[in-house]
Amino acid sequence: MVPPGRDDLNPDANAVQSLVAQHRCGTWQVALFHNTPAQYHGRPELADQHTDELRRVLHPA
Asked: What's the whole-model pTM score?
């Protein structure tokens, strides 16, 4: 998440989302949405990788 008035991520707010959609009766519908904090307990290198990946998307070269 980029806080209001800022231009960079707040790594403490990183999260991982999962979405399952299903095509029924000619239309797509969300069947499941899950949002969980990206904690990476005891693995700070994974948290850093996650933040770096998000920054590359936010600020493409």
From this structure: 0.72
